[in-house]
Amino acid sequence: MNRLNSLLFSMMLLLCNISMNFAQVRRSLGPPVNHPTFNEYAPSISANNKTMIFETDRAGEGKWELYYTTKNEKNRWTPPKPIVNINKIGKDNDLIGGPSITYDGKTLYFFASFEGGQGDMDIYSSSWNGTDWSEPKPASTNINTKAYEGFPSVSSDGKSMYFIRDNFSKRKDKALCYTIWVSKKQDDDTWGVAEKLPAPINVDCEKAPRIMADNRTLIFSSVRKEGVGGFDLYQSFQEDDGSWSTPINLEYINTEEDDQFASVSAAGDLMYYHTAGDIYTVTIPDKYRKYKLVTVDGKVIDAITKQPIATKLTSKSSNVKERAINTVVDANGLFSIIYRVGSKYDITTSPLADYLPYRGKMDMTTAKETDNIEKNIELIPKKLVFQFQLLDKDTKAILKDPKVKVMDAETKQLLEVKVDKDIASVTLEIGKPYKFAANALGYAFFSRAFKPDTVDAFRDRLKKVPLAVLKKDVVVQLQDITFETGKADLKPESGEELDRLVTLLDGNKTIKVEISAHTDDVGNDDTNLKLSEKRAKAVVDYLTAKGIKADRMTAKGYGETQPLVPNDTDENKAKNRRVQFKIN
């Protein structure tokens, strides 16, 4: 029995080892990416793992050009196609290679020996316009020199470009060895003077650096004494103080061949690289991954029109040791942000003149690196068009030729109101207080304080305003009629609404009204009744002073006897303290 158990244990251990090794076995991409008679070099994978650009000689006659392939709905690579706008610039003997897509997918960097360049090879960039890559532009002289520059790689935050530099044409041994350099993005959005990376990165013979999505892990090819072949792949991590850790030999991938030109998915789980003339892929073991990452793709759009918006997104982690992520969003609105699995982020936009500030959150605590996360960010315009339609309060019939006034409550300025048939339109700013008034011939006026908020942006902004017909026993509550506490002295702000009543009575000479005042239930009943009578009379006195004949009005105080709502809250008590008029 012991022997049997021992045998079973050995078999299980063997199966585990086979399983672990199988997960790390390299796999050729095969057709249609790899061609049996041509070479494929320097693959570059997009952040969403759906586009690959690589260097190949499949155009024939010794030409090296850039091709791209995308994944179809079955997650399979489609037949590669040439990037015409870049390849057409090259002459017959020009080399175009070392492509590197930025993590946001908007810029393609590469190197080439185009005519008119600075040196043996120069670095160029091309921009994605939504349908195609633009004609290339050379990098600045802070990067391109009379030496050889190639294999650029830009960090996911867009602030650092790593590349190789050398002038091997002047070396006696003609060895294809280089040094790795880095250029930092300046405040004016240009690339700064490049600096050579120190040891232990640059030792003697380096090539093809690739900075990973965490902006700290650098994978590069190097010829070193501990290597297993010619060029092997190594990995180094940049510490908080800016120093680089001792490069680790990626033993799970290196062979006796030249293993180089690595490109790692943004999630950090798959590596694409070149060996033996073809492109291969391999799963990266966890021990080589300091962080697990997840990519969030989306679009910044206008919440109302759904049109794209150019802005800048800033993502700040709840982990103070993580650097803030700044993402530039161009006119197409598209963005791709790489977050660390397990972290939470606060997202803000840069100030925009026409939109409210955006503050959102991204919670990656339960995210998986294999997740395909999509999130649109909707910005709410600061100003929105609101429409008003006047209705008969009883019949709901739409009233023609509406008279609408909207005033800025802070500046007291009247806004421009446009009337088209039966709809009045006005542009209002979210969060700003306004005063709205409407009337139509033969109807009582309607007035309200109005402060549009962000919720209004997503509601129907066509407001239906009911007006009461001027007929016997119709009651209209006056807005913003205020008195000194416990007194019958009208406050100055009451004049705005009372003047509307003056206009109504002036325009309807036959109408007589009862002016009534009401209180809440605070205090003595008799005191409240007398106070309401005095307040009603104060309103009549105001109207009389404005030219309305006294015999057209009666003043009536009801005290607390006719509450609109129960006097059980401060808000309800405020509603019960009111002034109304009733047509007699």
From TrEMBL:
<feature type="domain" description="OmpA-like">
    <location>
        <begin position="470"/>
        <end position="584"/>
    </location>
</feature>
<dbReference type="InterPro" id="IPR036737">
    <property type="entry name" value="OmpA-like_sf"/>
</dbReference>
<dbReference type="Pfam" id="PF07676">
    <property type="entry name" value="PD40"/>
</dbReference>
<protein>
    <submittedName>
        <fullName>OmpA family protein</fullName>
    </submittedName>
</protein>
<dbReference type="InterPro" id="IPR050330">
    <property type="entry name" value="Bact_OuterMem_StrucFunc"/>
</dbReference>
<dbReference type="InterPro" id="IPR011042">
    <property type="entry name" value="6-blade_b-propeller_TolB-like"/>
</dbReference>
<keyword id="KW-0472">Membrane</keyword>
<dbReference type="InterPro" id="IPR006665">
    <property type="entry name" value="OmpA-like"/>
</dbReference>
<dbReference type="InterPro" id="IPR011659">
    <property type="entry name" value="WD40"/>
</dbReference>
<keyword id="KW-0998">Cell outer membrane</keyword>
<dbReference type="Pfam" id="PF00691">
    <property type="entry name" value="OmpA"/>
</dbReference>
<feature type="signal peptide">
    <location>
        <begin position="1"/>
        <end position="23"/>
    </location>
</feature>
<keyword id="KW-0732">Signal</keyword>
<dbReference type="InterPro" id="IPR006664">
    <property type="entry name" value="OMP_bac"/>
</dbReference>
